[in-house]
Write a structure and sequence with these properties.
The protein is α+β, with helices and mostly antiparallel strands. The chain has helices at about 15-40, 70-80, 135-150; strands at about 50-55, 60-65, 80-85, 95-100, 105-115, 120-125, 130-135, 150. Strands 3-7-6-5-4-1-2-8 form an eight-stranded antiparallel β-sheet, with helices on one face.
Length: about 150
């Protein structure tokens, strides 16, 4: 039975209002829930920062990246790494080491070592003990973030 079949000639049109309110409510509910969920999304890197250690310089050269967008972009690049158990680690010191920390907590959430090698870069995840390759264009972005997105400590 269709809802229009409920109307008969003796029924006043205002008697349909409660029925239509329910329909409208259930149609608008998913839209309202989507809007609320969009407003409450929190940046996963809000209370975090990255320390970058430039191993190519003489002496400790550590800088800090606090820009949440830059941190997010760096971590997205780490998601692009082609992790491979056959990846060879170079026999020299890494070019950079960086780690993710949460404010007011000295524990390192993630630690990476980076070697820039020609067309690609080698990334070693010290926490997970795995290595992989990052393609040249992504490696260039990463190096750019290390050199321009950080402030010296």
């Amino acid at each position: 039975m269709h809802h229009f079949d409920k109307i008969n000639n003796n029924q006043h049109p205002l008697e349909l209002i409660p029925f239509m309110r329910k329909r409208i409510f259930f149609l608008l509910l998913p839209i309202a829930l989507l809007n609320l969920s969009g407003c409450t999304t929190e940046d996963p890197y809000a209370d975090q920062f990255i320390r970058v250690s430039d191993q190519s310089s003489i002496g400790p050269d550590i800088s800090v990246i606090k820009d949440e967008k830059v941190i997010s972009e760096i971590m997205k690049l780490m998601d692009q790494v082609s992790w491979n158990s056959q990846t060879d680690i170079p026999d020299r010191d890494e070019d950079y080491q960086f780690w993710l920390e949460k404010e007011d907590n000295e524990e390192r959430l993630a630690v990476y070592e980076v070697w820039f090698e020609g067309d690609q870069s080698i990334i070693f995840d010290s926490k997970k003990r795995k290595a992989g390759y990052l393609e040249r264009s992504d490696a260039e972005k990463l190096e750019h973030y290390f050199t321009s997105g950080s402030k010296k400590q």
